Protein backbone atom coordinates (compact mmCIF):
# COMPACT_ATOMS: atom_id res chain seq x y z
CA UNK A 1 0.00 0.00 0.00
CA UNK A 2 1.45 3.29 -1.09
CA UNK A 3 0.54 5.22 2.01
CA UNK A 4 3.20 3.27 3.88
CA UNK A 5 5.98 4.75 1.76
CA UNK A 6 4.83 8.33 2.02
CA UNK A 7 4.51 8.15 5.79
CA UNK A 8 8.00 6.75 6.14
CA UNK A 9 9.42 9.31 3.73
CA UNK A 10 7.91 12.11 5.78
CA UNK A 11 9.12 10.85 9.12
CA UNK A 12 12.40 9.82 10.57
CA UNK A 13 11.88 6.10 10.50
CA UNK A 14 14.06 3.91 12.66
CA UNK A 15 16.36 1.41 10.96
CA UNK A 16 14.13 -1.45 12.02
CA UNK A 17 11.02 0.15 10.67
CA UNK A 18 12.70 1.01 7.37
CA UNK A 19 13.96 -2.53 6.75
CA UNK A 20 10.54 -4.05 7.23
CA UNK A 21 8.95 -1.24 5.28
CA UNK A 22 11.24 -1.63 2.28
CA UNK A 23 10.70 -5.36 1.98
CA UNK A 24 6.99 -5.34 2.65
CA UNK A 25 5.76 -2.16 1.11
CA UNK A 26 3.38 -3.81 -1.32
CA UNK A 27 1.23 -5.40 1.40
CA UNK A 28 -2.04 -3.65 2.20
CA UNK A 29 -2.16 -2.77 5.89
CA UNK A 30 -5.41 -4.69 6.43
CA UNK A 31 -3.89 -7.98 5.30
CA UNK A 32 -0.56 -7.22 6.91
CA UNK A 33 -2.14 -6.60 10.31
CA UNK A 34 -4.50 -9.56 9.92
CA UNK A 35 -1.77 -12.05 9.04
CA UNK A 36 0.45 -10.64 11.80
CA UNK A 37 -2.31 -11.43 14.26
CA UNK A 38 -2.54 -14.98 12.96
CA UNK A 39 0.93 -15.53 14.36
CA UNK A 40 0.08 -14.08 17.72
CA UNK A 41 -1.67 -15.77 20.61
CA UNK A 42 -4.21 -12.91 20.44
CA UNK A 43 -5.84 -14.50 17.43
CA UNK A 44 -7.14 -17.33 19.61
CA UNK A 45 -10.89 -17.47 19.32
CA UNK A 46 -13.45 -17.34 22.10
CA UNK A 47 -17.01 -16.02 22.28
CA UNK A 48 -15.95 -12.71 23.73
CA UNK A 49 -16.50 -9.48 21.78
CA UNK A 50 -12.77 -8.76 21.49
CA UNK A 51 -12.16 -11.95 19.52
CA UNK A 52 -15.34 -11.18 17.59
CA UNK A 53 -14.11 -7.75 16.49
CA UNK A 54 -10.63 -9.02 15.68
CA UNK A 55 -11.97 -11.85 13.54
CA UNK A 56 -14.33 -9.51 11.75
CA UNK A 57 -11.30 -7.37 10.90
CA UNK A 58 -9.44 -10.40 9.56
CA UNK A 59 -12.52 -11.49 7.65
CA UNK A 60 -12.98 -8.06 6.04
CA UNK A 61 -9.31 -7.96 5.01
CA UNK A 62 -9.44 -11.49 3.58
CA UNK A 63 -12.64 -10.76 1.68
CA UNK A 64 -11.46 -7.51 0.13
CA UNK A 65 -8.16 -9.01 -1.00
CA UNK A 66 -9.58 -12.43 -1.93
CA UNK A 67 -7.24 -14.24 0.45
CA UNK A 68 -8.95 -17.61 0.74
CA UNK A 69 -6.34 -18.98 3.17
CA UNK A 70 -7.00 -16.21 5.63
CA UNK A 71 -10.77 -16.34 5.15
CA UNK A 72 -10.95 -20.07 5.72
CA UNK A 73 -8.82 -19.64 8.86
CA UNK A 74 -11.38 -17.19 10.23
CA UNK A 75 -14.28 -19.39 9.15
CA UNK A 76 -12.76 -22.39 10.94
CA UNK A 77 -12.23 -20.32 14.08
CA UNK A 78 -15.86 -19.13 14.17
CA UNK A 79 -17.13 -22.61 13.35
CA UNK A 80 -15.20 -24.01 16.32
CA UNK A 81 -17.42 -21.97 18.67
CA UNK A 82 -20.65 -23.63 17.52
CA UNK A 83 -21.29 -27.35 17.87
CA UNK A 84 -23.23 -29.25 15.23
CA UNK A 85 -26.52 -28.89 17.12
CA UNK A 86 -26.16 -25.10 17.26
CA UNK A 87 -24.95 -24.89 20.86
CA UNK A 88 -22.50 -22.07 21.53
CA UNK A 89 -19.58 -23.54 23.44
CA UNK A 90 -19.75 -22.58 27.11
CA UNK A 91 -22.69 -20.24 26.63
CA UNK A 92 -25.05 -19.78 29.57
CA UNK A 93 -28.52 -18.76 28.34
CA UNK A 94 -29.26 -17.24 31.75
CA UNK A 95 -26.24 -14.97 31.84
CA UNK A 96 -27.23 -11.57 30.50
CA UNK A 97 -24.38 -9.46 29.14
CA UNK A 98 -24.60 -7.42 25.93
CA UNK A 99 -20.88 -7.97 25.34
CA UNK A 100 -21.65 -11.63 24.68
CA UNK A 101 -24.18 -10.90 21.92
CA UNK A 102 -21.63 -9.37 19.54
CA UNK A 103 -20.23 -12.76 18.40
CA UNK A 104 -23.62 -13.28 16.75
CA UNK A 105 -22.41 -10.96 13.97
CA UNK A 106 -19.54 -13.30 13.13
CA UNK A 107 -21.86 -16.28 13.17
CA UNK A 108 -24.42 -14.64 10.87
CA UNK A 109 -21.66 -13.47 8.53
CA UNK A 110 -20.51 -17.01 7.81
CA UNK A 111 -24.04 -18.40 7.72
CA UNK A 112 -24.87 -15.90 4.98
CA UNK A 113 -21.59 -15.81 3.06
CA UNK A 114 -21.31 -19.58 2.95
CA UNK A 115 -24.65 -19.97 1.23
CA UNK A 116 -27.00 -20.12 4.24
CA UNK A 117 -26.47 -23.88 4.40
CA UNK A 118 -25.03 -24.40 7.86
CA UNK A 119 -28.08 -24.74 10.08
CA UNK A 120 -25.98 -24.76 13.22
CA UNK A 121 -25.22 -21.07 12.68
CA UNK A 122 -28.87 -20.19 12.28
CA UNK A 123 -29.75 -22.11 15.44
CA UNK A 124 -26.95 -20.49 17.44
CA UNK A 125 -27.96 -17.02 16.27
CA UNK A 126 -31.54 -17.88 17.22
CA UNK A 127 -30.42 -18.65 20.78
CA UNK A 128 -28.83 -15.22 21.07
CA UNK A 129 -31.91 -13.57 19.56
CA UNK A 130 -34.26 -15.44 21.91
CA UNK A 131 -32.22 -14.24 24.85
CA UNK A 132 -33.04 -10.65 23.88
CA UNK A 133 -36.75 -11.45 24.31
CA UNK A 134 -36.25 -12.20 28.00
CA UNK A 135 -33.34 -9.85 28.57
CA UNK A 136 -33.65 -7.52 31.61
CA UNK A 137 -34.59 -3.95 30.72
CA UNK A 138 -34.81 -0.53 32.33
CA UNK A 139 -38.32 0.80 33.04
CA UNK A 140 -38.16 2.64 29.66
CA UNK A 141 -37.21 -0.53 27.79
CA UNK A 142 -33.42 -0.26 27.46
CA UNK A 143 -31.33 -3.41 27.75
CA UNK A 144 -29.23 -3.45 30.93
CA UNK A 145 -25.57 -3.46 30.04
CA UNK A 146 -25.13 -6.59 32.16
CA UNK A 147 -27.15 -8.34 34.80
CA UNK A 148 -27.06 -8.03 37.73
CA UNK A 149 -23.97 -5.76 37.95
CA UNK A 150 -25.21 -2.96 35.73
CA UNK A 151 -28.89 -3.02 36.54
CA UNK A 152 -30.81 -0.19 34.83
CA UNK A 153 -27.63 1.04 33.13
CA UNK A 154 -27.17 1.54 29.42
CA UNK A 155 -23.68 2.07 28.03
CA UNK A 156 -22.75 3.24 24.54
CA UNK A 157 -20.61 0.10 24.21
CA UNK A 158 -23.66 -2.13 24.61
CA UNK A 159 -25.50 -0.43 21.76
CA UNK A 160 -22.80 -1.70 19.40
CA UNK A 161 -22.58 -5.15 20.98
CA UNK A 162 -26.31 -5.90 20.80
CA UNK A 163 -27.93 -3.72 18.16
CA UNK A 164 -25.63 -4.60 15.27
CA UNK A 165 -26.58 -8.24 15.78
CA UNK A 166 -30.26 -7.53 16.52
CA UNK A 167 -30.46 -5.55 13.26
CA UNK A 168 -28.80 -8.14 11.04
CA UNK A 169 -30.83 -10.93 12.60
CA UNK A 170 -34.07 -9.04 12.06
CA UNK A 171 -33.18 -8.23 8.44
CA UNK A 172 -32.50 -11.92 7.72
CA UNK A 173 -35.26 -13.66 9.65
CA UNK A 174 -37.97 -11.19 10.64
CA UNK A 175 -37.81 -8.30 8.16
CA UNK A 176 -41.51 -7.56 8.69
CA UNK A 177 -41.23 -7.44 12.48
CA UNK A 178 -41.89 -3.74 13.07
CA UNK A 179 -41.85 -4.29 16.84
CA UNK A 180 -38.24 -5.43 16.57
CA UNK A 181 -37.25 -2.52 14.32
CA UNK A 182 -38.84 -0.06 16.72
CA UNK A 183 -37.20 -1.76 19.67
CA UNK A 184 -33.80 -1.31 18.00
CA UNK A 185 -34.45 2.39 17.42
CA UNK A 186 -35.63 2.73 21.03
CA UNK A 187 -32.23 1.60 22.34
CA UNK A 188 -30.56 4.45 20.43
CA UNK A 189 -33.24 6.96 21.41
CA UNK A 190 -32.84 6.20 25.12
CA UNK A 191 -29.08 6.54 25.07
CA UNK A 192 -29.41 9.78 23.09
CA UNK A 193 -31.98 11.27 25.44
CA UNK A 194 -29.81 10.66 28.49
CA UNK A 195 -26.20 10.98 27.36
CA UNK A 196 -26.02 13.40 24.41
CA UNK A 197 -24.47 16.79 25.08
CA UNK A 198 -26.29 19.06 22.64
CA UNK A 199 -23.53 21.66 22.70
CA UNK A 200 -20.56 19.41 21.92
CA UNK A 201 -22.54 16.77 20.00
CA UNK A 202 -20.72 14.08 22.01
CA UNK A 203 -22.20 11.46 24.33
CA UNK A 204 -21.33 10.46 27.88
CA UNK A 205 -20.21 6.87 28.42
CA UNK A 206 -23.56 5.72 29.79
CA UNK A 207 -26.45 6.43 32.15
CA UNK A 208 -28.27 4.85 35.05
CA UNK A 209 -32.01 5.15 34.69
CA UNK A 210 -32.45 4.68 38.46
CA UNK A 211 -29.75 7.33 39.10
CA UNK A 212 -28.33 5.18 41.89
CA UNK A 213 -24.79 4.75 40.57
CA UNK A 214 -22.18 6.90 42.36
CA UNK A 215 -21.42 8.65 39.08
CA UNK A 216 -25.01 9.25 37.94
CA UNK A 217 -26.11 12.81 37.19
CA UNK A 218 -29.13 13.55 39.43
CA UNK A 219 -31.20 14.80 36.48
CA UNK A 220 -30.17 12.74 33.44
CA UNK A 221 -28.54 9.75 35.15
CA UNK A 222 -25.53 10.22 32.83
CA UNK A 223 -21.95 9.39 33.73
CA UNK A 224 -19.67 12.44 33.88
CA UNK A 225 -17.25 11.88 30.98
CA UNK A 226 -17.02 11.22 27.27
CA UNK A 227 -14.79 8.18 26.81
CA UNK A 228 -13.43 7.79 23.29
CA UNK A 229 -13.87 4.05 22.83
CA UNK A 230 -17.49 4.10 24.02
CA UNK A 231 -18.25 6.82 21.46
CA UNK A 232 -16.31 4.79 18.89
CA UNK A 233 -18.51 1.75 19.44
CA UNK A 234 -21.57 3.94 19.21
CA UNK A 235 -20.46 5.68 15.99
CA UNK A 236 -19.79 2.27 14.39
CA UNK A 237 -23.16 1.00 15.64
CA UNK A 238 -25.00 3.85 13.90
CA UNK A 239 -23.13 3.27 10.63
CA UNK A 240 -23.67 -0.51 10.70
CA UNK A 241 -27.32 -0.42 11.74
CA UNK A 242 -28.16 2.18 9.07
CA UNK A 243 -26.79 -0.18 6.40
CA UNK A 244 -29.79 -2.46 6.96
CA UNK A 245 -32.46 -0.51 8.84
CA UNK A 246 -35.61 -0.13 6.67
CA UNK A 247 -35.61 3.36 5.17
CA UNK A 248 -39.41 3.62 5.25
CA UNK A 249 -39.63 3.31 9.03
CA UNK A 250 -39.49 6.40 11.25
CA UNK A 251 -36.46 5.02 13.10
CA UNK A 252 -34.26 5.41 10.01
CA UNK A 253 -34.43 9.20 9.89
CA UNK A 254 -33.90 9.38 13.65
CA UNK A 255 -30.80 7.21 13.52
CA UNK A 256 -29.47 9.14 10.55
CA UNK A 257 -29.94 12.37 12.50
CA UNK A 258 -28.01 10.91 15.44
CA UNK A 259 -25.20 9.93 13.11
CA UNK A 260 -25.03 13.34 11.42
CA UNK A 261 -24.86 15.18 14.74
CA UNK A 262 -22.22 12.87 16.10
CA UNK A 263 -20.11 13.12 12.94
CA UNK A 264 -20.09 16.92 13.35
CA UNK A 265 -19.23 16.72 17.04
CA UNK A 266 -16.40 14.29 16.41
CA UNK A 267 -14.86 16.44 13.72
CA UNK A 268 -14.76 19.36 16.15
CA UNK A 269 -13.20 17.16 18.82
CA UNK A 270 -10.44 15.78 16.55
CA UNK A 271 -7.01 16.90 17.70
CA UNK A 272 -4.85 18.67 15.14
CA UNK A 273 -2.51 15.65 15.02
CA UNK A 274 -5.44 13.63 13.64
CA UNK A 275 -6.47 11.49 16.60
CA UNK A 276 -8.91 11.74 19.48
CA UNK A 277 -8.28 12.08 23.22
CA UNK A 278 -9.09 9.27 25.63
CA UNK A 279 -11.30 11.62 27.66
CA UNK A 280 -12.94 13.81 25.06
CA UNK A 281 -15.06 16.28 27.03
CA UNK A 282 -13.86 19.80 27.82
CA UNK A 283 -11.63 20.83 29.47
CA UNK A 284 -9.77 17.50 29.45
CA UNK A 285 -8.24 17.26 25.95
CA UNK A 286 -4.58 18.21 26.38
CA UNK A 287 -4.73 17.93 30.17
CA UNK A 288 -2.06 16.11 32.13
CA UNK A 289 -2.50 12.32 31.96
CA UNK A 290 -4.84 12.42 28.98
CA UNK A 291 -3.58 11.11 25.63
CA UNK A 292 -4.53 10.37 22.05
CA UNK A 293 -5.94 6.84 22.18
CA UNK A 294 -5.70 4.38 19.31
CA UNK A 295 -8.87 2.26 19.49
CA UNK A 296 -11.23 5.23 19.50
CA UNK A 297 -9.23 6.85 16.70
CA UNK A 298 -9.49 3.67 14.58
CA UNK A 299 -13.24 3.40 15.17
CA UNK A 300 -13.88 7.02 14.20
CA UNK A 301 -11.76 6.69 11.05
CA UNK A 302 -13.70 3.56 10.08
CA UNK A 303 -17.10 5.08 10.83
CA UNK A 304 -16.34 8.13 8.69
CA UNK A 305 -14.96 6.12 5.77
CA UNK A 306 -17.76 3.60 5.65
CA UNK A 307 -20.33 6.31 6.30
CA UNK A 308 -19.06 8.27 3.29
CA UNK A 309 -18.73 5.21 1.05
CA UNK A 310 -22.30 4.14 1.75
CA UNK A 311 -23.75 7.62 1.28
CA UNK A 312 -24.64 8.27 4.92
CA UNK A 313 -22.10 11.04 5.47
CA UNK A 314 -20.73 13.94 3.42
CA UNK A 315 -17.65 13.18 1.34
CA UNK A 316 -15.68 15.89 3.15
CA UNK A 317 -15.31 13.58 6.14
CA UNK A 318 -12.88 11.46 4.14
CA UNK A 319 -10.20 14.05 4.89
CA UNK A 320 -11.00 13.79 8.60
CA UNK A 321 -10.53 10.04 8.38
CA UNK A 322 -7.41 10.22 6.21
CA UNK A 323 -5.74 12.45 8.77
CA UNK A 324 -6.58 9.96 11.50
CA UNK A 325 -5.35 7.09 9.37
CA UNK A 326 -1.99 8.75 8.72
CA UNK A 327 -1.55 9.23 12.44
CA UNK A 328 -2.37 5.59 13.16
CA UNK A 329 0.18 4.35 10.65
CA UNK A 330 2.94 6.55 12.04
CA UNK A 331 2.16 6.27 15.73
CA UNK A 332 0.25 3.08 16.52
CA UNK A 333 1.39 0.59 13.87
CA UNK A 334 4.74 -0.85 14.87
CA UNK A 335 6.81 -2.86 12.45
CA UNK A 336 8.67 -5.69 14.12
CA UNK A 337 12.09 -6.95 13.03
CA UNK A 338 10.53 -10.13 11.64
CA UNK A 339 8.27 -8.12 9.35
CA UNK A 340 5.04 -8.54 11.31
CA UNK A 341 3.01 -5.61 12.61
CA UNK A 342 2.06 -4.86 16.17
CA UNK A 343 -0.67 -2.48 17.34
CA UNK A 344 -0.12 -0.01 20.16
CA UNK A 345 -1.77 2.71 22.17
CA UNK A 346 -5.07 0.99 23.04
CA UNK A 347 -6.42 1.45 26.53
CA UNK A 348 -7.14 -1.86 28.20
CA UNK A 349 -10.58 -1.09 29.56
CA UNK A 350 -13.01 1.67 30.50
CA UNK A 351 -15.84 0.72 32.77
CA UNK A 352 -18.62 2.31 34.74
CA UNK A 353 -18.05 -0.10 37.63
CA UNK A 354 -15.97 2.43 39.58
CA UNK A 355 -16.43 6.18 40.00
CA UNK A 356 -16.13 7.04 36.27
CA UNK A 357 -13.87 9.96 37.17
CA UNK A 358 -11.24 11.55 34.92
CA UNK A 359 -8.57 10.07 37.21
CA UNK A 360 -10.08 6.62 36.78
CA UNK A 361 -10.04 6.74 32.96
CA UNK A 362 -6.47 8.05 32.66
CA UNK A 363 -5.24 5.56 35.26
CA UNK A 364 -6.12 2.48 33.16
CA UNK A 365 -3.00 1.03 31.49
CA UNK A 366 -2.42 0.61 27.75
CA UNK A 367 -2.11 -2.83 26.24
CA UNK A 368 -0.18 -4.00 23.19
CA UNK A 369 -1.81 -5.92 20.34
CA UNK A 370 -5.26 -5.32 21.73
CA UNK A 371 -7.99 -6.61 19.43
CA UNK A 372 -10.28 -3.75 20.45
CA UNK A 373 -7.92 -1.46 18.55
CA UNK A 374 -6.29 -3.75 16.00
CA UNK A 375 -9.69 -5.04 14.79
CA UNK A 376 -11.06 -1.55 14.08
CA UNK A 377 -7.70 -0.62 12.48
CA UNK A 378 -8.29 -3.50 10.05
CA UNK A 379 -11.85 -2.21 9.45
CA UNK A 380 -10.47 1.28 8.71
CA UNK A 381 -7.66 -0.11 6.53
CA UNK A 382 -10.15 -2.05 4.44
CA UNK A 383 -12.15 1.14 3.89
CA UNK A 384 -8.99 3.09 2.98
CA UNK A 385 -7.99 0.36 0.54
CA UNK A 386 -11.45 0.37 -1.07
CA UNK A 387 -11.29 4.15 -1.39
CA UNK A 388 -7.76 4.20 -2.81
CA UNK A 389 -8.24 1.06 -4.88
CA UNK A 390 -5.11 -0.51 -3.41
C1 LIG B 1 -2.99 -14.59 2.79
O1 LIG B 1 -3.09 -14.88 4.17
C2 LIG B 1 -2.08 -15.73 4.65
C3 LIG B 1 -2.38 -16.01 6.10
O2 LIG B 1 -3.52 -16.80 6.21
C4 LIG B 1 -0.72 -15.08 4.48
O3 LIG B 1 0.28 -15.95 4.94
C5 LIG B 1 -0.51 -14.73 3.02
O4 LIG B 1 0.68 -13.97 2.90
C6 LIG B 1 -1.66 -13.90 2.49
N1 LIG B 1 -1.51 -13.75 1.05
C7 LIG B 1 -1.52 -12.56 0.46
C8 LIG B 1 -1.37 -12.57 -1.03
O5 LIG B 1 -1.66 -11.52 1.06
C1 LIG C 1 -40.77 -9.47 16.94
O1 LIG C 1 -39.88 -8.73 17.77
C2 LIG C 1 -40.32 -8.64 19.09
C3 LIG C 1 -39.36 -7.68 19.80
O2 LIG C 1 -38.06 -8.19 19.78
C4 LIG C 1 -40.39 -10.00 19.72
O3 LIG C 1 -40.86 -9.92 21.05
C5 LIG C 1 -41.28 -10.91 18.91
O4 LIG C 1 -41.21 -12.23 19.40
C6 LIG C 1 -40.90 -10.88 17.45
N1 LIG C 1 -41.92 -11.55 16.67
C7 LIG C 1 -41.68 -12.60 15.89
C8 LIG C 1 -42.86 -13.13 15.12
O5 LIG C 1 -40.58 -13.10 15.77
C1 LIG D 1 -21.52 19.99 27.17
O1 LIG D 1 -20.49 20.44 26.34
C2 LIG D 1 -20.10 21.79 26.57
C3 LIG D 1 -19.08 22.15 25.48
O2 LIG D 1 -17.99 21.29 25.50
C4 LIG D 1 -19.57 21.95 27.98
O3 LIG D 1 -19.23 23.27 28.22
C5 LIG D 1 -20.61 21.47 28.98
O4 LIG D 1 -20.06 21.47 30.29
C6 LIG D 1 -21.09 20.07 28.66
N1 LIG D 1 -22.19 19.69 29.51
C7 LIG D 1 -22.17 18.59 30.28
C8 LIG D 1 -23.39 18.35 31.09
O5 LIG D 1 -21.22 17.85 30.33
C1 LIG E 1 7.54 -11.41 15.27
O1 LIG E 1 7.98 -10.61 16.32
C2 LIG E 1 7.01 -10.27 17.30
C3 LIG E 1 7.62 -9.28 18.26
O2 LIG E 1 8.82 -9.77 18.79
C4 LIG E 1 6.50 -11.54 17.98
O3 LIG E 1 5.50 -11.22 18.93
C5 LIG E 1 5.92 -12.45 16.92
O4 LIG E 1 5.54 -13.68 17.52
C6 LIG E 1 6.94 -12.72 15.81
N1 LIG E 1 6.27 -13.44 14.75
C7 LIG E 1 6.84 -14.48 14.14
C8 LIG E 1 6.03 -15.10 13.06
O5 LIG E 1 7.92 -14.89 14.44
C1 LIG F 1 12.80 -7.38 5.65
C2 LIG F 1 11.55 -7.88 6.29
O1 LIG F 1 11.23 -7.50 7.39
N1 LIG F 1 10.82 -8.73 5.61
C3 LIG F 1 9.61 -9.36 6.13
C4 LIG F 1 8.40 -9.05 5.26
O2 LIG F 1 7.24 -9.71 5.78
C5 LIG F 1 7.33 -11.11 5.85
C6 LIG F 1 6.04 -11.66 6.43
O3 LIG F 1 4.94 -10.94 6.01
C7 LIG F 1 8.54 -11.52 6.71
O4 LIG F 1 8.66 -12.91 6.67
C8 LIG F 1 9.78 -10.85 6.22
O5 LIG F 1 10.83 -11.14 7.12
From TrEMBL:
Segments passing through the bilayer: none
GO MF entries: hydrolase activity
Protein name: Glycoside hydrolase family 105 protein
Key words of the record: Hydrolase, Signal
Pfam families assigned: Glyco_hydro_88
Domain of life where this protein originates: Eukaryota
Biological process according to GO: carbohydrate metabolic process
Entry annotated with the keyword Lipoprotein: no
Gene3D superfamilies assigned: 1.50.10.10
Native source organism of the sequence: Lophiostoma macrostomum CBS 122681
Statement: the UniProt record of this protein carries the keyword Metal-binding: no
Residues spanning the signal sequence: 1-19
Amino acid sequence: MRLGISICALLTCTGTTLAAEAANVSQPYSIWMATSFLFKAQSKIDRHYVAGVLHEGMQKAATLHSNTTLLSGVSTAISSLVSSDGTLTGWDPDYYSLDDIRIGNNILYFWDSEGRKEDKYKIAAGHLRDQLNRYPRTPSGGFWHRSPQYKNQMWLDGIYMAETFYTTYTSYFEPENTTAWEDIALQFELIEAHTRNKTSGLLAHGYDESKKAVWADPVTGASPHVWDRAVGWYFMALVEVLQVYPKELAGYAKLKGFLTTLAEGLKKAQDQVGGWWLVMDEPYPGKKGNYIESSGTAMFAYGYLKGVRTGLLDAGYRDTAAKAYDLMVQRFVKQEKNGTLSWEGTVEVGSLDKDASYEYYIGVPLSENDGKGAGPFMFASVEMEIWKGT
